[in-house]
Amino acid sequence: MARMGESAATADSTRRPTVPAAAAPSMIAPHVSSAHVVIITGLSGAGKSQASKLFEDLGYYCVDNLPPELLDRLLALRRDDPQRYARVALVLDIRAGDPASAIEQARRTLASSGVRLDVLYLEASDGTIVSRFSETRHRHPLETRSGVQAGIQEERRRLDRTRDLATAVLDTSGLSIGQLKERLFSFVPRDGAADALLIDIVTFGFKYGIPLEADLVFDVRFLTNPYYVPDLKPLSGLQAPVREYVLAQPAAGRFLDLVAELLRLTVPAYQAEGKARLTVALGCTGGYHRSIALAEELAGRLGDLPDASVAVFHRELER
Fold first, then answer.
1. pLDDT digits over 47-74, tens only?
2. Can you state the angle between helices 126-136 and 148-158, rounded to 10 degrees?
3. 157 and 217 in one domain?
4. Which of 24, 215, 221, 258 supports an S-S bond with 238, CB 3.0-4.6 Å?
């Protein structure tokens, strides 16, 4: 399983065959609210760049290593051109100094305009961060002759106030890139009623592990695998030939009927119990063909569920 901080050579060895340019994007964005600002901060080596990539895939305007002094200017740009800068993700970290004051100012500015602000603080154990810097051969921004670990401790101290301002603190120790994206995906707002149940349909490969956030897990490896059809192997389940191959199997239609019926039965009960989010995971061997095709079809069938918002996230698509 590819981990955050893994070297480029290692990551390339597990990368999928190149998908033709006509393929759909790597992540199916939900109906995202028109105004959302995310500040990604935290410890060096904790996965901030990967977090920024997730939001970029979802159509956010992303800026890495923004000097805190420029945050007000960027927010002013957002006010002047709210359509272009409706969804913004910013990485503020120790490279440009403690971002705490800038975050407090941004919170005050955005509160008056009704724009949602999330501050996501990423951290990891000292051992994990040391290992990641060793793998990538990058230098910790606060590293001294005392070594990487001393720099990590100093960074924790300097960012203590910033951590207290966070909407959520995410410990990325031991998480793969895909698992980190699962966690972050839950912070993406969607249009719809405030009390709507958020249904996330997540596809995954069993060879890479079951999603941490899954409430319901369905194994779709009972279907014939397009991977063994030479013309279909390099394509994903988002593309018509694979989708048609999977959905043409009689068992696929019956499976979708049963899962859709189960959710129509249980979703009202989840709503009555006050559940805010339901994560439904569909897994096949690699998470690239069968699970993706079925998830897209299932999402379409659930589109008319009352008081519910459905989104799809394909965890392994970029692997």
1. 998 899 888 887 889 999 888 888 888 8
2. 120
3. no
4. 24
- Which residues of the chain are modeled with pLDDT < 70? 1-34, 145, 190-195
Nearest to 71 by CA among 36, 42, 32, 110: 110
What six digits make up the tokens of 202?
């997540």
The three-class DSSP label of residue 68 is helix
Handedness of CA 41, 47, 50, 51 (dihedral sign): negative
Residue-wise pLDDT for 96-106, tens only, equals 888 899 999 89
Which residues 6+ apart lie within 8 Å of 154 measured at CB? 142
Torsion of CA 55, 60, 64, 70, to 10 degrees: -140
Angle of CA points 132, 136, 140, to nearest 5° = 70
Selection from 249, 181, 278, 238 nearest residue 16 by Cα: 238
> Which of 185, 215, 239 is the endpoint of a domain?
185
Regarding whether 298 and 202 lie in a shared domain, the answer is: yes
Same domain, 148 and 293: no
pTM of the model: 0.62
Q: How far apart are CA 194 and CA 198, in angstroms?
A: 10
